[in-house]
Amino acid sequence: MLRIRPDSPHPLYDLAATRAIEHSAAASLPPHTLMQRAGLATARLARALAPHARAAWIVCGPGNNGGDGLEAAAHLHRAGIRVTVTWLGSEGRLPPDAQHSLQRARDAGVDFADAPTIALTAADICIDALLGIGLAPGGAARPPPPHWLALLAQLRAAPACLLCVDLPSGLQTDTGAWAAGFAPDAPAQAACHTLALLTLKPGLFTAQGRDAAGTVWLDTLDVLADESLASARLTGPSPAAQRAHASHKGSYGDVAVVGGEGLARRGMGMEGAALLAASAALHAGAGRVLLALLDDGALPAAVGAPELMQRRFEALDLEALTVVCGCGGGESVAEVLPAVLARAARLVLDADALNAIASDAALQTALAERATRRWGTILTPHPLEAARLLGCSAQAVQADRLAAAQRLVQRFGCVCVLKGSGSVVAGPGRVPAINPTGNARLATAGTGDVLAGMLGAHWAAGKESFAAACSAVYQHGRLADRWSEGQALVASALAKASNFD
Ligand SMILES: NC(=O)C1=CN([C@@H]2O[C@H](COP(=O)(O)OP(=O)(O)OC[C@H]3O[C@@H](n4cnc5c(N)ncnc54)[C@H](OP(=O)(O)O)[C@@H]3O)[C@@H](O)[C@H]2O)[C@@H](O)CC1
Ligand SMILES: [K+]
């Protein structure tokens, strides 16, 4: 069994892949083997998480997820724990594996009741074995029976640690979105863990998945999955870049940041966003960083960033640069976008550049044409910006983040970083990646500009676009994960910390 940490990559398998792996494993094993392994793994983790537990409350659903819970119940009972199973199945409709485990739990002498038979304490354990991958996907999910929701709410409100079997019940395997009706009103009161069985599912790591799942563990049930079936990948750290001794500032690429609408234009000075991106590019290791503020803006002397080279937009040699365009660009960015799209060799498009493209068909055509010229482009939308580009709602994007990122890739032929909890990186011909680092402290103004600048630096240093996107997103999140508790995470400090490693 493995605790999933952000320090190593992992393949992720969607529902179809997991079913295929399950099917072929089950065919080569004696009946009930997988469920027995799943139940034993669940019981072992429960005991490790709650070593002093006197009581366990296990809510078991009508399918094989419930079967795993029943199997675990028998083990925990035999270990001397007072186990209560609330079982929501009906005997006539039980799958054979779960029927077998029901009998084993009964034979072991487990109590069956509607609620725990003794009051739970913080030392005890609750197990959610109501629903796993059998939840009907997407819009096909039917509304859950109200008493199921009441039980799930009681599990989350209990003072005991909560262990979810395979998936938090109601979370969709492939998307990490809650199925209709399942989104909880409140998070779990105590620590929450999820034990993924056989495979790690993408839904555990993006959209609502990270909040719902808590700490994720994997037990492969001793089945070696065929990695070619992976539908996505959880990224890990990239190898540290080696700098040759005989190198110079031109060895690590030139990044140009184009953005920062001036105060004179509409009374909103947005130079700060461009400055944050430029500062991040500089501290992330770019050899030279050029800053072209729009509306002929100039940096106030007080900013004190002597390494940044200010340029008028017209003076930029776009064909030779990695251009980061959009940060704080406001309305002014639309005026430079035709030239940027037509000439920049490598282009990161962020924020206002994406909004300008979303509202202008000619710019969309110019963006799509870049791929036909084999020029690299990376889009870095948050869900609302992605929705504008796709002509749908942000809710639709969040309902299937992997699919939304891949739709942008198909439409524009570029790499797409869809930001948010569990940022998705998708690219032409690539298995999409989900980033495991980052936390809610990044939800503050300017951190997106910092990411755009870091991305420019990682790309300019020589990585190919998809790898640069994965490494910059990973590092941006890792900085936040390592941020000192007592220090406010502000974007300017994040930019200065974005050292290249
Ligand atoms: N994959 C593996 O390798 C292994 C899998 N194992 C375990 O099996 C789990 C998958 O089991 P599963 O296929 O029986 O599905 P599961 O999650 O129990 O749910 C199905 C039940 O829920 C019901 N139901 C669905 N939606 C509903 C709704 N909205 N509201 C109400 N009811 C709803 C559905 O009803 P039906 O649609 O059939 O009428 C059916 O009764 C998997 O997650 C893992 O824990 C391990 O034991 C071994 C290895
Ligand atoms: K579950």
Structure in words:
The protein has 17 helices and 19 strands. The protein is elongated. The model has no long low-confidence stretch (mean pLDDT 95). Helix 8 crosses helix 15 and helix 15 (447-460) packs across helix 16 (465-481). The protein folds into two domains: 2-231, 3-Layer(aba) Sandwich (Rossmann fold); 249-497, UDP-N-acetylmuramoyl-L-alanine:D-glutamate ligase (3-Layer(aba) Sandwich), CATH 3.40.1190.20. It has 501 residues and is an alpha/beta fold. The strands form two sheets. It has an eleven-stranded mixed beta sheet with strand order 2-10-19-18-17-16-15-14-11-12-13, sandwiched between helices. An eight-stranded mixed beta sheet has the order 1-9-8-7-6-3-4-5, with helices on both faces. The longest helix is centred in the first third of the chain and has 17 residues, at 33-49. It starts with a strand and ends with a helix. Ligand NPW binds next to helix 1, helix 2 and helix 3. Homotetramer. It holds the Pfam family Carb_kinase. K(+) binds at residues 65, 128, 169. Its EC number is 4.2.1.136, 5.1.99.6. InterPro entries: Carbohydrate_kinase_pred_CS, CARKD, Nnr, Ribokinase-like, YjeF_N_dom, YjeF_N_dom_sf.
